[in-house]
Design goal:
Strand content: 25-35%
Helix content: 10-25%
Number of strands: 30
Number of helices: 5
Largest sheet: 7 strands, antiparallel
Shape: elongated
Length: about 475
C-alpha cells in the first residue's frame, strides 16, 4: 500500500471491544460517570460505545460555593505528620447546606450566670460577661439564616471546625512538642454571609460544646452607656489587613489590630494580655480581606478569598516552575554534576540536591571545598564570599504567593524559594511573637528571617552544556 495514501480497513469486533475496555478503564480511572450504548457492527454483532450519563437517578452534584481558605503560616502545603480530619495546614470554607450562624438578640443582668436559664439551655447560644462576683451580663444569640459560622481553636471538640496547634518554627518532623499552648481552646469564629459570599467577619472567642462563651472577672470587658457590652479574650485575636491588592504583587503590609468578642476593632494593647483595651480604630472593620492575617498567639493564619485564589498560581503551576529550572540542567561548578530541585523534602543526603550560599546567592551542590571547620561556614568557589549554606527547596503552598512567575529568590536562613515579589512581601511583614514582640518569618516554615534584607537572589549555573 502506498504510504502516502490511507486505505479504509475493516476492523473486527474483537478489536473494537478491546478498545472499548481500555476506554472504559480510562474513564473510570478519572471518575467520570458514563452510560454504555450498543452499536451495530457490519457483521451483525453489537459493540458498546460511550456516552455521558444523563439519567435522572444520578443527578450531577451542585458546585459548592466557596467563601475562602484559612492557611496556617509555617507549613509548606501540609503538616509534618500529615493532614488528618480537622487538623490540617489549611481549611476551606464552603457554604453550608443549612445556615448555622447566630446573631445578637438581647442582653440582661443576672447575679449567678452559671445557673441562669440561657447558660443551662443547651440549644441557646449566649455570652456571659462577669463584671463582679454577683453581677454578670448575659447576651443571648438567636439563629441567623443569612450566615454560616465556622470556629477555630485548639480544642478537638465538636464545635471547632479547624483545629489549630502552636506552630514550631522550622519544624520538619512534627515531633517537637509545645509544653503549654497559648492558643485558646475556642479561639475565634468567622461568620460568612450566605447572600454575599465575599463578606466574612471575624470575632474573638468561639462557642463551646454548651454553646456558651464565658468572660471571667479578669477578662478585659466594658459596657458603654449601660447598654452594649463587649470584651477581649486573654491573649487576644489580632488581625492585619493588607494595603492594596494582595494577589498582584503590589500590596504592602499594614498595622496590626485587635478584634473583640463583639466584632469591634481596636489598636493593640500595651502587651498581649494587658487589662486596658486599645483605642477604637475608625474606618477599620472585622471583615476579612484577601490576604488578611489572623494571629491567635501561637499560630498565624492567612485568609485567602475565593476570588483572590483564582488569581493565584496553582500547585501545578509551581511544579512546572521546578520542572523549568531542572530542564535547564543547572550544574555544580565544583562537582560538575547536574543539580535537581526536589518536589518533596527528604532527610537523606542527595548529590543532586542544590545548596545556596546565603551571602552571595550562588547555587551549588554539596561539597567540602572552602569549608571553615571552626564556624561551619563555607567559601563560595565562584566569588570567594564566606558564609552559611543551606538546602534549596521550593515553596509549594500557593496561598502564600502574591504573584506568578519563576522562583528567583530564597529566604534566609531556611532556603525556601519563591517569586521575587512574594519573598520581598513576606520579608516586610512583622508577625507577632511572644507577648509584645514581632519578627519577619518565612511563610513556608515560620523560621525567623536572618540578616538584612532576610533573603537572597538565586544564581544558578545553568545551560552550561
Amino acid at each position: 500500500m502506498d504510504k502516502g495514501k490511507m486505505e479504509p480497513t475493516e476492523v473486527s469486533s474483537d478489536v473494537l471491544v478491546k478498545v472499548y475496555c481500555e476506554i472504559e478503564w480510562c474513564f473510570n480511572d478519572f471518575g467520570d460517570n458514563m452510560l454504555i450504548k450498543k452499536m451495530k457492527l457490519s457483521d451483525g454483532t453489537e459493540s458498546p460505545i460511550l456516552e455521558e450519563q444523563e439519567s435522572a437517578n444520578s443527578e450531577k452534584p451542585k458546585q459548592l460555593v466557596k467563601y475562602g481558605e484559612l492557611v496556617i503560616l509555617g507549613y509548606n502545603g501540609f503538616l509534618p505528620q500529615g493532614d488528618r480530619g480537622r487538623r490540617r495546614s489549611k481549611f476551606v470554607l464552603y457554604k453550608r447546606p443549612t445556615a448555622n450562624g447566630v446573631k445578637r438578640s438581647k442582653h440582661y443582668v443576672v447575679k449567678t450566670p452559671h445557673s441562669s436559664q440561657a447558660i443551662l439551655d443547651a440549644n441557646q447560644h449566649s455570652i456571659s460577661y462577669t463584671l463582679s462576683r454577683n453581677h454578670a451580663v448575659i447576651v443571648e444569640y438567636t439563629p441567623d439564616d443569612d450566615t454560616d459560622m465556622f470556629q477555630i481553636g485548639r480544642s478537638s471538640e465538636a464545635p471547632i471546625d479547624f483545629v489549630v496547634m502552636d506552630t514550631v518554627p522550622g519544624d520538619k518532623t512534627g515531633e517537637t512538642k509545645v509544653m503549654q499552648s497559648t492558643i485558646s481552646r475556642f479561639a475565634c469564629r468567622i461568620l460568612c454571609d450566605r447572600k454575599n459570599p465575599k463578606i466574612a467577619r471575624i470575632y474573638a472567642a468561639g462557642f463551646d460544646t454548651s454553646k456558651n462563651i464565658f468572660l471571667g472577672e479578669k477578662a478585659t470587658k466594658w459596657q458603654e452607656n449601660g447598654r452594649e457590652i463587649d470584651g477581649l479574650t486573654t491573649n487576644g485575636v489580632l488581625i492585619m489587613h493588607p494595603r492594596g491588592t494582595f494577589c498582584g504583587g503590589d500590596a504592602k503590609c499594614s498595622y496590626w489590630l485587635e478584634t473583640s468578642v463583639g466584632g469591634g476593632v481596636f489598636s493593640l494593647r500595651e502587651s498581649r494580655s494587658a487589662q486596658q483595651k486599645g483605642q477604637v480604630v475608625e474606618n477599620e472593620t472585622n471583615i476579612l480581606e484577601d490576604g488578611t492575617l489572623i494571629d491567635l498567639c501561637g499560630a498565624t493564619l492567612l485568609w485567602r478569598s475565593a476570588e483572590g485564589l483564582t488569581k493565584s498560581p496553582s500547585k501545578r503551576d509551581l511544579e512546572r516552575e521546578i520542572d523549568e529550572i531542572n530542564a535547564g540542567r543547572p550544574q555544580c561548578p565544583v562537582g560538575l554534576n547536574t543539580l535537581v530541585i526536589p518536589r518533596k523534602v527528604t532527610p537523606n543526603e542527595n548529590l543532586q540536591q542544590p545548596y545556596v550560599y546565603l551571602n552571595c546567592g550562588h547555587v551549588q551542590g554539596l561539597h567540602d571545598w572552602g569549608q571553615d571547620k571552626d564556624s561551619g561556614a563555607r567559601k563560595c568557589p565562584i566569588c570567594l564570599e564566606l558564609g552559611p549554606v543551606v538546602k534549596v527547596f521550593m515553596g509549594l503552598e500557593p496561598a502564600f504567593y502574591v504573584d506568578s512567575g519563576p522562583p528567583t529568590f530564597a529566604f534566609n536562613p531556611c532556603g525556601h524559594m519563591a517569586t521575587e515579589k512574594t519573598v520581598k512581601y513576606w520579608a516586610n511583614v512583622a508577625i507577632p511573637h511572644g507577648t509584645n514582640g514581632f519578627h519577619a518569618v518565612c511563610p513556608f516554615c515560620a523560621s525567623p528571617l536572618a540578616g538584612s534584607p532576610g533573603y537572597v537572589r538565586l544564581i544558578f549555573q545553568d545551560n552550561v552544556d
